[in-house]
């Protein structure tokens, strides 16, 4: 019997509207083109489908991360790679994910709060500043910046394609993908 290789998890963290989902979707699309078994797990969709009863307290956010980590573990165990786009604002959340997942990489999607607010098509930052949304990350709740991520992408000064190339290079360096030059990136 053939044994599948253990999958990996690439966990993108950052402020709301920093570009996590855009970057994760672009990377996932490129990996799929290359024949990689990969699943993109978007924080908003995860909350809608497996965390619908959770609020935004620290405890509820941690439970949401635990559920996402569980799904990633299942995928990874079966050779499917996971690209996660989730705010996960507290360092303890990301440390938990790292402790539970064998092949874990943290990527900080770094963007100024002013640019995040400019990009915010839903108007969530404005609502949070008016006090209409309590515990909003970056406004009325903290975002603990990663201290030692495997990679930091500054999405307010770079193009999505350039960020995908950097991510592919990181995966290649860790032995998870072929050289990006082969990919035509």
UniProtKB/TrEMBL annotation:
Superkingdom field: Bacteria
Record keywords, A-Z: Kinase, Transferase
Top EC class of this enzyme: transferase
Keyword check for Transferase: yes
EC number: 2.7.1.25
Protein name as it appears in the record: Adenylyl-sulfate kinase
Species per Swiss-Prot/TrEMBL record: Paenibacillus mesotrionivorans
Gene: cysC
